[in-house]
Specification:
By secondary structure, the protein is α+β, with helices and mostly antiparallel strands. Helices cover 32% and strands 43% of the residues. Strands 1, 2, 3, 4, 5, 6, 7 and 8 form an eight-stranded antiparallel β-sheet that branches. The relative contact order is 0.24.
Length: 148
């Protein structure tokens, strides 16, 4: 009897979950969220997101072709609480600037279950190789937004 009950509950659960996936309201909600994410990426001009693995205060990145645009440093809430926005970061000797709250450069993304917030940015022109120097000892995200 117990096996039959578990079997019936499993079938009901599968049917319920299948019904949610086929529900037009659920599909519409997913479509709207995809569009919002896509619009946000397009508005910011995100070309690539890279996890910067900090090694002895340096991170190197090689571009496939010369890059001109903005490089954003994104940090988690925990990193912001540890004052990453107060740290000095340099991109090929160009110092990053703090992001002004509620400006067009103030954005966040969600990656691997964690929210990351833009904290600093640098504008660069025609670089093939990126060398970031900092005293910050933790990893962080970089977002590349090419010049439009």
């Amino acid at each position: 009897m117990r096996k039959i009950t578990v079997g019936l509950l499993s079938i009901i659960l599968i049917l319920f979950l299948t019904g949610c996936v086929n529900n037009p309201e659920v599909k519409e909600a997913f479509a709207k969220s995809d569009k919002i994410v896509s619009d946000t990426y397009e508005q910011i001009g995100i070309d690539e997101i890279v996890e910067a693995k900090n090694t002895n205060g340096e991170f190197e990145y090689q571009f496939d072709e010369p890059f001109t645009g903005e490089i954003f440093i994104l940090a988690s809430k925990e990193q912001i609480e540890n004052n990453i926005s107060e740290e000095e970061f340099f991109a090929n000797d160009t110092q990053f600037e703090k992001i002004i709250e509620d400006s067009s450069d103030d954005f966040n993304i969600r990656r691997n279950g964690t929210s990351y917030f833009s904290v600093q940015k640098a504008t660069v022109k025609n670089i093939d190789n990126l060398l970031i120097k900092t005293k910050w000892n933790d990893d962080f995200l970089l977002v590349f937004a090419p010049q439009k």
